[in-house]
Design a protein that fits this description.
It contains 10 helices and 10 strands. The protein has 283 residues and is an alpha/beta fold. It has an 8-stranded parallel β-sheet with strand order 3-4-5-6-7-8-9-10. It has a two-stranded antiparallel sheet with strand order 1-2. α2 packs across α3 and α7 packs across α8. The radius of gyration is 18 Å and the shape is globular. It comes from Corynebacterium xerosis.
Length: 283
């Protein structure tokens, strides 16, 4: 049964190309095809309209099947969904980027994705600009609606031929990324947060637990609310149906400036989960 409290209520942001992106999505990292199919269909049933995958994840077939199941069951039309995939580091040459995108569409069973990202800059390869330029061409051909990047920072963003629509970066209370968020905002780029809950490492005793108690919500919900009020897009990953529903419960309350600051006070440079984008992929 669809969750009528959530369906269609997640706010969206307007991208610099005029398209819109829902502020909460479902991440699918480390889901196999079978799990992805089940989770994507269920997520759509309870109100998610934004699904994030990547060629690296090895689950684009399952994600596509989950979307197809939801569409065939009458839960949603394709044009109501926002689907993202990404080009991996070994496919940044122009021809390889095109081949990767076409293979992703084949696996997803879709005519287009809503957002196609260069997954990491890998600056020593020197190919991220070529990859992004090819994504721009794919956008002009209608194979993706928007062109974006992931894990980019100011120096590599400077080298792109145009500002991307989205920059998806690791961002959570332990790594609030204030400087990069402001840099993206200055460029007109929407910042999207991967690992937005920081794998719950900051959910114990401390500011998040205290804020959750104050507003009568769960730690995950107040953390996601922190993202939304910062003007970010968050893509929490969960294969648990209860947590998937919980992660949509970000409406109907607001955090005060003091509560926002308390969560941001958890910033800790040692809390990074993934690689440093200045070096990742070039080691």
């Amino acid at each position: 049964m669809a969750n009528d409290d959530f369906a269609g209520t997640i706010p969206s942001l307007t991208l610099n190309d005029g398209n819109t992106i829902p502020q909460i999505g479902l991440g699918t990292w480390r889901m196999d095809d079978e799990t992805a199919r089940r989770c994507v269909r269920h997520a759509i049933e309870i109100g998610y309209r934004h699904i994030d995958t990547a060629s690296l994840y090895g689950n684009e077939v399952g994600v596509g099947q989950g979307i197809a199941d939801a569409v065939s069951d009458g839960l949603v039309d394709r044009d109501e969904l926002f689907v993202t995939t990404k080009v991996w580091n070994d496919a940044q040459a122009a021809a390889d980027t095109r081949r990767s995108a076409q293979e992703s569409l084949r696996k997803l069973g879709l005519d287009y994705v809503d957002l196609l990202l260069v997954h990491w800059p890998c600056p020593k390869q020197g190919l991220f600009g070529e990859s992004y330029s090819e994504i721009m061409k794919l956008r002009d051909e209608g194979l993706t609606r928007s062109a974006g990047v992931a894990n980019f920072y100011s120096e590599v963003l400077d080298e792109l031929p145009e500002a991307p629509a989205v920059n998806q970066i690791e961002l959570h209370p332990g790594l609030p990324q204030d400087a990069q968020v402001e840099d993206d905002r200055r460029r007109g780029v929407v910042t999207q947060s991967w690992a937005p809950l920081g794998r719950a490492k900051k959910f114990g005793d401390g500011p998040i637990a205290q804020v959750a108690a104050e507003v009568g919500r769960t730690p995950a919900q107040v953390t996601l609310r922190w993202h939304l009020q910062r003007g970010l897009v968050a893509i929490p990953k969960s294969a648990d149906e209860g947590r998937m529903a919980e992660n949509l419960g970000v409406l109907g309350f607001e955090l005060t400036d003091a509560q926002m600051a308390a969560i941001s006070s958890l910033a800790d440079p040692d809390s990074r989960i993934g690689g440093d984008p200045r070096f990742f992929g070039d080691e």
